[in-house]
Write a structure and sequence with these properties.
This protein has 185 residues and is of the alpha+beta class. It is built from 9 helices and 4 strands; from the N terminus they run H-H-H-H-H-H-H-E-E-H-E-E-H. The strands form 2 sheets. It has a two-stranded antiparallel ribbon. Strands 3-4 form a two-stranded antiparallel ribbon. A hairpin with a 2-residue loop joins strand 1 and strand 2. Helix 1 runs antiparallel to helix 2. The longest helix is centred in the first third of the chain and has 21 residues.
């Protein structure tokens, strides 16, 4: 573990010279994964340190996309550790500090894509899944969704008329019923 921690310190030195060096950030992520794989007993403390490090780097430069991206990789595990679901009411509280920095970054330079990309990542994870496109070919309906979902969650679909959302126009169908009915021509 001490060897891996030394590698993290080496990454810190490189990032002092070039805080956006994506090669160093990528290597840091590799080390992070190794600590997770081989030293799980100390991993959650290390995760907390890394999350603090990313905020330090983001505060130093809002336009550091590598820091924002690395943070997104860490947060996924932190949510699991804290037992917070993306669709829970706690998620906005969890991201309160991140949203503060995103807001400041956008006001500082609205054209900088780094905070916008991170903001998009948050939104894409907390918003419902929607159909991006639909193609029909005789008996096959191909749906392109806004994000990947496990197959077993796809077996139950809710079809809603977007112009009128009352329950009369909403049908809860399983996949077999959906394919058997004439909803799309």
């Amino acid at each position: 573990e001490s060897c891996l921690r030394n590698e993290i310190m080496l990454c810190n030195k490189f990032l002092e010279n070039d805080e956006r060096n994506f090669h160093v950030w990528n290597y840091r992520l590799t080390i992070f994964k190794m600590i997770y794989q081989f030293f799980k007993q100390n991993f959650w403390d290390f995760l907390k340190e890394e999350l603090e490090f990313t905020l330090k780097m983001i505060k130093k430069s809002f336009s550091n996309f590598s820091a924002w991206h690395y943070r997104s990789k860490l947060i996924t595990l932190d949510l699991v550790n804290k037992n917070i679901s993306w669709n829970s009411s706690e998620i906005l509280e969890y991201f309160k500090e991140d949203l503060f920095y995103i807001k400041n970054a956008i006001f500082t330079d609205p054209r900088d894509q780094s905070p916008w990309n991170y903001y998009n990542w948050i939104l894409s994870n907390i918003t419902p899944i929607f159909v991006k496109s639909i193609n029909c070919d005789k008996y096959i309906v191909n749906l392109k969704l806004s994000q990947k979902i496990p197959f077993d969650e796809l077996l139950k679909l809710s079809i809603t008329n977007e112009t009128n959302n009352d329950s009369e126009n909403s049908k809860d169908l399983n996949l077999k019923e959906f394919l058997a009915n004439d909803f799309v021509k």
